[in-house]
């Protein structure tokens, strides 16, 4: 890599890296250049702006080059930084789990709306917990709640446990590795899940940051993208406590089909919250009263 040589200024590094990232079809190349250089130097964006004429410290050059090379290869920025913000939390990330995304915050909003009492002593289950982002976000807003996160990948469960400890929530959470609902016998006020919902054949066509670097186990929803929802529909009636609700993340255009699976399993669709992009993202379900109709928005 001939650009970004020792002795060059912060501004020169940012300019050269931005051009290289733009050529690699990276969105927001200037922003990402600042993130990479700030990470390498241990500096904030404000410090980079203030010190734009200062030379990049020699010890930061190699770190920056390595990060830039990774990003040019479409390694996700969160993997390079090792962190991702979600809700009000700072979470460690790794290739063992999906990177938390803003779209999934709609599930947190739906869950908090379903249980508006801040002091409610909720029992929560998060199926396919990944980084623990959904469960930990709800726990951070409901201080008397306790939650269990379950993931089929032991490395993901360990990552979520570390995130709970780092955010002061280890005392109100537990994380287990197992095959979703079959590993548990209990009733929960709230069940959260961001299941795999991408059609198998569509995964190679996803953006390279996802297709190459995020775990297939957390993406692949089977031939029609609905395999996990079928399993969830069968498991949820036995997992929900009286008055309990489930909040499931949906892929674009999946609401009607998933609601049909839920109804057939004895669940009532209550509402569906859209994400910031307008996609119907967070489906809220409850047990259907015997002889009663489903209630949907």
The CATH superfamily of the largest domain appears as: Vaccinia Virus protein VP39
* CATH top-level class of the largest domain: Alpha Beta
What is the overall silhouette? Answer: elongated
Describe the main β-sheet briefly: 7 strands, mixed
Helix content: 25-40%
Low-confidence spans: pLDDT under 50, at least 5 residues? 291-296
Strand portion: 15-25%
CATH architecture of the largest domain: 3-Layer(aba) Sandwich
Instruction: Going across the biggest sheet, name each strand in turn.
Output: 5-4-3-6-7-9-8
Notable traits:
single chain; 297 residues; alpha/beta; Rossmann fold; 2 domains; disordered C terminus
What features would you describe in this structure?
- Keywords: Methyltransferase, S-adenosyl-L-methionine, Transferase.
- 39% of the residues lie in helices and 19% in strands.
- By secondary structure, it is an alpha/beta fold.
- It folds into two domains: 10-73; 86-287, Rossmann fold, CATH 3.40.50.150.
- The strands form two sheets. Strands 5-4-3-6-7-9-8 form a seven-stranded mixed sheet, with helices on both faces.
- The longest helix is centred in the N-terminal third of the chain and has 15 residues, at 58-72.
- It is elongated and about 70 Å long.
- Residues 291-296 have low confidence and may be disordered.
